[in-house]
Amino acid sequence: VYRSASGWVLHRDRVPELQQIGEEDEEELHFGWLLSKDRKPFYGLRSEDLMIKSDGWQCFYGPPPAPQAVVKTTWLEHFQKVSGRLKEEGNVAIKAGHHQEADRLYSEALTTMEGYEEMVESSMDLKELQVALLANRAEARLRLQRYEACMSDASWCLRLDDGHVKAAVRFAKASKALGRLSQAVPFLAPLARHREVQAFFEEAEVLRSCEAEDQSSSRHLLGVHKAAVRLGEVRSRWAAEKVGAEDVSSEMSTASQALTRELKSVKLEDSQRQLGCLLRGHAVLDLATEALSSSSSPDEDEEDDWALELMTAC
After folding, report:
1. Greater confidence, 151 or 287?
2. Would the pLDDT of 85 be above 80?
3. Is the pLDDT of residue 62 over 70?
4. Secondary structure of the chain in the HEC alphabet?
5. Cα dihedral 79, 83, 85, 88 in deg (nearest 10)
6. In this structure, are residues 266 and 220 in contact, taking their beta carbons and an 8 Å threshold?
7. CA–CA dist 225, 262 (Å, integer)
């Protein structure tokens, strides 16, 4: 018995003459091959041969024409053909900037293999295909700013292949966008030697140390961390609730001034490298640059004074 992912079953059984369909005359039944779905024989082949023939098929409950070629294939070949084709189509879509379509194609390819985990696990080729699909879908979801979904795919990918550098970077970018870069430490640590991962790992380590108020972090760095967290919270609330420009400008200015004061209090003996990692981890300069670039007019710069002061302090 051979079963396809779409529910078709190719099996050896008694096959009636075409005109005997629905009758109980067992003398007219002969062994052969049936192509069935939902317990109905759609097409049949009357043959005593145990080898599957590609021609001679007849229509029973299935609509004409009968299959012209029925070929046995392995699950490995099936998944490589179906999921592999969807993967390539997804790659074309993401390169063209059609990220939603790429997400759909990668998802369809992964769904095709659902329920066959043991088979996928036992095949190196299928496991590599699954890992590639997860990593690619993580990239599509990162570009769609679906950060939670991106982190889910990237972490799944890393569980299957803990050496997947691109998946680690995508997890880091998504967690950083959500202000949760410190959570990426366990995923980044095994790959910290890679150039693409190293900077994210250093930022995540400093953030985690500050969040835990580790004694290895100076008092001034902890102050910078807390002030940067507050600034990020104000920015996130504004983005989520679209509060008034005056309200957010006032809050941003207050939070920025607090961060500027903390930056000015950092002593020379404090680790400049740690400070740089901390600021990058909180995307402080990115936030200030975004505020300045979105200014409606060069003459209306009073609202953006906080951004200029912050960049100067950084």
Report:
1. 151
2. yes
3. yes
4. CEECCCCCEEEEEEECCHHHCCCCCHHHCEEEEEEEECCEEEEEEECCCCCCCCCCCEECCCCCCCCCCCCCCCHHHHHHHHHHHHHHHHHHHHHCCCHHHHHHHHHHHHHHCCCCHHHHHHCHHHHHHHHHHHHHHHHHHHHCCCHHHHHHHHHHHHHHCCCCHHHHHHHHHHHHHCCCHHHHHHHHHHHCCCHHHHHHHHHHHHHHHHHCCCCCCCHHHHHHHHHHHHHHHHHHHHHHHCCCHHHHHHHHHHHHHHHHHHHHCCCCCCCHHHHHHHHHHCCHHHHHHHHHHCCCCCCCCHHHHHHHHHHHHC
5. -140
6. yes
7. 9
In the numeric block, the tokens 């900037």 are attached to 97
Q: Using a cut of 0.85, tell me whether the model's pTM lies above it.
A: no
Rounded Cα gap, residues 12 and 16, in angstroms: 13
Distance of alpha carbon 201 from alpha carbon 211, whole angstroms: 15
- Structure confidence by residue, pLDDT tens digits, 103-117: 999 999 999 888 888
Nearest Cα to Cα of residue 184 among 172, 193, 170, 198: 172
What's the whole-number mean pLDDT along residues 253-261? Answer: 69
Q: Which residue do the tokens 């550098």 mark? A: 165
Answer yes or no: are the C-beta atoms of 99 and 140 closer than 8 Å: yes
Token pair, residue 287, equals 């936030």
Q: Check residue 174 and give its pLDDT.
A: 94
Strands of the sheet containing 2-3, edge to edge, are 2-3, 9-15, 30-37, 40-46, 58-59
- The CA-CA-CA angle for residues 191, 194, 199, to 5°, reads 90
Tokens of 17: 């003459």
* pLDDT tier at 215, thresholds 50, 70, 90: very low
CB distance 145 to 113 below 8 Å? no
